[in-house]
Structures are given as C-alpha cells and as structure tokens.
Design goal:
single chain; mainly beta; Tachylectin-2, Chain A; Jelly Rolls; Immunoglobulin-like; 3 domains; 13-stranded antiparallel sheet; five-stranded antiparallel sheet; 2 helices; 2% helix
Length: 654
C-alpha cells in the first residue's frame, strides 16, 4: 500500500526517457578512477567467468530467479539480466542457490541447486531437506539472453542405474561445479551421505563428492567422496561442513578451493584440495587436503568464503571474488569483495589477508582502458523498467533497481542494510553541472537525496567519497554533507519542513568550489568546499522508502572538440542520416603520421568492435561501417591518435 498510495499523487502525463549525449570527450587525465574499495556489491556465493571481451557474474539473489551480469570491469558487476525463472512446481521451483555460468563444449551452461519448497522444521529451524542440483543450457551464444532451457536434475547419489529421476531417491546436493580434466568431464559438489538425517538441530554433515559426467547435464557414474570435515577448523558450532568447491588450475596441479564450517557464523573460511594434473580424480587417494585454512577472516573482516577465481582484464594478475559478513555477530547479511592473490613457491595459491572494507585498492590491471567519459546532458524519466540496469550502478541489499509506475524507488526492502542504499549514473564523470530531480519520501525516519562528485564507492552506508544532499524527514532540515568512505560530516544545514508523501523538486548547481542547493526553485544553501572536484552522480536513501522522478543533469564546462587541444585537422564524424539503418560512413582526419585506433562501443562502454588499429600518415580517411549484427540503439565511436581522443555518438534504427 505504501508504494501504491503515491501513484495517485502524480499527475498523469506522457513520459519519454531521454538520454542526450552531445560532444562527448574522454577525460583520461582528470577523470580516470584508478582505485576501488570493498565491498563491491551485496550478495552471496559470487561467481565470475572471463571471456575475451568481458566478465560474466552470477550470485545467489533474494529472488527465485537466475541472474547474469555482464561487465568489462571486475569492480563493477555491470549490466544485469534475469535469464531464467523456475517453474511453479517441481523439484526446482524455489531456493535457487549458487548459480555458476560455464562454457563447455561450445555452449553456455548454468550449474545451480534448488528446492521443491518442502521443508522440515527442527527446534524451530527451517531445514532445506530437498535441496538438489541441476543444469540449465543456453540456446544462444549470449548468456545474458533469455534463451535458457531446463536440462533437469543431476543425479548425486549412490545407485544411478536404479534412479527414478525424482527427488525421493536422489541425495541432497548443493554448489555443483564442473571439472574438465584429462579429456573427461566431471562434477564436484557438496552433499550429504546416504544415512544423513535432519535430527541434528536441523543440520547434517556436508562432504565433497565427484562423479563423471556423460554430458554437461547428465551424470555417468555414481558419486565418490573426495573430502569430509576432519580438521578442527572445519567443525563448527553446529555443523561439519565442506562446501562451495571451485576449481583453480596452476602449474602441474588442479586445486579445489572450498569453504566451511557454518556459513552463517564468523568462523567461515576457505580450504584447499589439490590433485596432480595427470591423476584420476575419481580415486580419493589422489586428492590432498591442506590441514589449515588458505583464507580466513580477521577482527575487521568476518566470515570469508565461497570464492571464485579469475584474472585481470589484461591477464597479468590473479583475483579472488568472495563473500563476507556485514557484522561480527554473523547472520545472513553478506556482501561481495574482490582481492588480488599470488602464488606460493610450491605453485599453490596465496590468498593473503582480506583487506578491511574501505581500504583503497588498485583496480585490476587493464581495467580502465575505457575510462569514464564526461557528457553534456543526461535525463531519465524512468518509463522503461527493463533497461535501467544499463544506466545505473546499484549498491544496496536488494540487488535490484525498482522502477514502478514510471518512478525509481529506493529503500523498499525490509532489511536494515538498506541504510545507505544508492544508485549512480554508470560510466560518466561530472565536474561542474546543474542536477535536478523530484523526490518524495514515503516512509522512514531519516533522509533521502542526491550524491555527486563521487569516487571510491562501495556497498555500505557511508562507502563513498563525495557529497550528499539530504532531505531529513526526522529533523525537518535539508543539509549538505561530505562523506570520506567511513563517516558523514554535515557541512551546513537549514531548517525546512519535510513531509512524507510530498513531492520536492531538488536542484544542485556546482561551479568549482561553489555549491548551490535549491528546493522548489528557492535557494536553500550556498556553500564553498573544494575537497571533491569531480566524480559520479546519483541518488541515495538512508532508512527511508523514497520515490525519485525526472532526473536530469547538464554539464557546465564541457570542452568542445574544436579547441586548442584539438587542431582543425584532427576530426571525426559520421555521414547523415543519423539515425542510420544497416550501414553508414565514418570520416576521420589526422594531422600526423601515428597509430590510429577507431573502436565501436555500446552506451555502457563495452567494446563491440575494433574498426581500425594501425599506423597511418596524415590525411583524410573514411570507412563504411555495417551494422548487420547489431540491434537498434545508441552507440559510441572513438578515435584515438597523436595522444588525443574524440568520442561521438551514432544512432542505429532498424
């Protein structure tokens, strides 16, 4: 009812989302962000896989759907797509856990676990007694498409020849992950033994098992146990656990990095199994378990585990994506973090010590080849809920941007981690500008507003460096604050009555160190502060449910292409019409012999195609660009030569 009530307060009007991108330039010196801070997202059971052009991410989300993210960056999950929803009945209708995306034998597959919705309750604890594992297959080479089909349940028991294909004579299994080794395909997972029951306060021991596969969605053999909790660190307060196995290859060994014991406590850690490359993985004697954890928490970082390993964009560094707890008391509130790791002398991974939240870390090598750009204008009326993950970066507990009734909503979840929930405009930096938006606080005890000149942002209440303008419903005031990544410092404030379910038009103007704040076109605050000079812009709430609408920002100090830095004989343009259909001619001019790079990107900054990368003498050039394999939309084309860069837009309309 809270969200519905505000719908009738809006004047019904025709809305058109508008993104205006004019005279785009790259800000490679002043605006490139070369650092990041943890945590990078909310979530659990993170998974990442790298391709030649991008990363794909998965994780357990608070809905019974499978989600895939796509990004050029390890530090930003990127564009989000719901790719598969479970059936309304059956073995996998709910509780989708730990999905993993893999490319096997020329196709994309997702390994996951799920439940039929039937639970036991022991001493008041809910027990997911029917959790089983399965596989999805993608009918497309694009894993972010909705072209996924359910290939069924995996057999994870001891009598494959007599399996009925149902939950009843299969055995509990979670966290499945494939292993390709010595020309064969295997699956490793965490499961119960055949005599397991749920009488131990609702829990039972979890072991690691392996079985050979006939194909990526069918088991060929019965399972073999390769590990069980034996060392003191694997035995928790309630449960003995080996879970979350992930495969890591290095040198002459294959490593399986797993986690345990009780995942909801702060004792959760990561362990290691290893096996020689040429050994038989179905022989338990070939596996060696390390007696101590290989990655564990500290007095500042709690409950680390369920990691996924990959490399930096340029392939020169190794990185661990893992989850941790928000609080030292444990619980289910988890976040996702990223940390570089190295190798020990024996070739095994050295994950080091987890860095505390807010620690400034260097981005993965090669990540910011495509820097944030500065544009002339952006506006969003939130009339297309399906595309807003493309425009905005979200940091909050719900892992979701909610666009309802042509408004963007923050703070709609029930968990207290919504404090500090925020979205930021993806891919753009701003220095001096005019920003406007409509805000209505519907429920809550604190504030909502806009953030700007933001850098080093992360998941967390004050996890950003930049400015915040808050409409404070609790204390009836509007204030300007500066955040340093750990704390909020109010710079100035003005008394003003803030009512629930009432729309306010908020405007902020920046000019170097001068900041002006208007409410309903009346100036409320003027303040000078020079600590933060550029960065991203966005929207934020602190313990309120708030609707936002009519977001617009216009740059004041955009540098034109024709300036002292861009000679008359350095140019880039496209022939008309624009929008174009199917093909167009791109013209460019360079004034010195140099290497010329001309690339095409989508609006989120993902490289689509390298058009030119070669040395050319000074002169005028043209090339015909064909869009046969592209969908309608807005694209960026970028010319780089002689140490200078021009970026322009073109619209494809088929």
């Amino acid at each position: 009812m809270i969200i519905q009530n505000i719908y009738f307060m809006k004047i019904i009007k025709f809305r058109v989302s508008l993104i205006i991108l004019c005279s785009i330039i790259f800000c490679k010196l002043s605006f490139a962000q070369k650092a990041f801070v943890n945590p990078i997202s909310e979530g659990a059971d993170p998974w990442v896989i790298k391709t030649d052009s991008c990363y794909y991410f998965c994780s357990t989300v608070w809905v019974s759907d499978v989600v895939v993210w796509k990004s050029k960056k390890l530090t930003d999950y990127g564009i989000r797509r719901f790719v598969w929803s479970p059936p309304t009945s059956g073995w996998n209708k709910t509780d989708i856990w730990a999905p993993e995306l893999h490319y096997i034998q020329g196709k994309w597959y997702i390994f996951y676990s799920a439940c039929n919705g039937e639970y036991d309750y022991v001493n008041g604890n809910q027990v997911w007694k029917n959790q089983r594992s399965g596989v999805l297959e993608c009918l497309s080479q694009d894993p972010t498409s909705a072209s996924w089909v359910d290939k069924g349940m995996l057999y994870t028991g001891d009598d494959i020849d007599n399996w009925s294909g149902t939950v009843d004579d299969n055995i509990w299994a979670i966290d499945p992950t494939p292993l390709e080794m010595n020309g064969k395909l295997y699956c490793i997972w965490s499961g119960w033994d055949s005599t397991a029951n749920v009488l131990n306060n609702g829990f039972t021991q979890q072991n690691l098992y392996i079985a050979e596969m006939k194909n990526p969605y069918t088991m060929k053999t019965n399972r073999v146990k390769i590990a069980e909790p034996t060392y003191p660190w694997e035995i928790g307060q309630v449960q003995r656990v080996n879970e979350g196995p992930e495969v890591l290859r290095h040198g002459y060994y294959i490593y399986v990095i797993y986690s345990g014991p009780d995942y909801w406590t702060i004792e959760y850690k990561m362990g290691q199994l290893s096996i020689p490359m040429n050994a038989d993985p179905m022989n338990p004697n070939n596996w060696t378990k390390k007696s101590v954890p290989v990655f564990q928490g500290t007095d500042q970082v709690y409950s680390v585990g369920h990691g996924s390993m990959t490399t930096s964009p340029d392939g020169t560094e190794n990185w661990l994506l893992y989850r941790s707890k928000q609080y030292p008391t444990g619980g289910w509130e988890r976040d996702i973090r990223l940390q570089r790791f190295t190798w020990n002398q024996d070739g095994s991974p050295n994950f080091g010590v987890p860095s505390p939240a807010g620690t400034i870390l260097n981005v993965p090598s090669g990540e910011f080849d495509f820097d944030n750009v500065q544009i002339n204008e952006f506006s969003d009326k939130f009339n297309d809920s399906s595309r807003h993950w493309d425009n905005w970066v979200y940091y909050g507990w719900e892992s979701d941007i909610k666009v309802l009734s042509e408004m963007l909503w923050l703070g709609c979840g029930y968990r207290d981690l919504n404090a500090g929930e925020k979205v930021l405009l993806r891919g753009y930096d701003w220095k001096d500008f005019t920003l406007e938006t409509d805000i209505s606080i519907v429920e809550g005890s604190k504030d909502a507003g806009v953030i700007f000149r933001v850098i080093e942002l992360a998941f967390g209440k004050y996890s950003l460096k930049g400015y915040y303008i808050g409409l404070d419903v609790e204390n009836d005031k509007i204030y300007l604050a500066r955040m340093d990544g750990n704390n909020k410092t109010i710079l100035t404030e003005v008394t003003m009555q803030i009512n629930l379910n009432f729309w306010y038009h908020l405007k902020v103007e920046t000019d170097s160190s001068n900041i002006k704040i208007y409410v309903d076109n009346e100036i409320k605050i003027e303040f000078n502060d020079s600590q933060n000079t550029f960065g991203m812009v966005g929207l934020r709430v602190d313990e309120t449910t708030t609707a936002f609408d009519n977001f617009q920002i216009v740059s004041k100090n955009l540098v034109g292409i024709k300036s002292e830095n861009y000679p008359e004989n350095f140019n880039l343009k496209q022939n008309y019409p624009n929008p174009f259909n199917n093909s167009t001619i791109i013209y460019y001019q360079i004034y010195e012999t140099d290497n010329v790079s001309l690339n095409l990107y989508d609006i989120s900054g993902h490289l689509i195609e390298e058009l030119i990368n070669e040395t050319k003498p000074s002169g005028n050039y043209q090339l015909r660009f064909s869009s046969d394999e592209l969908a309608s939309g807005l694209y960026l084309y970028r010319l780089e030569s002689e140490g200078k860069t021009i970026v322009k837009k073109m619209m494809l309309l088929k």
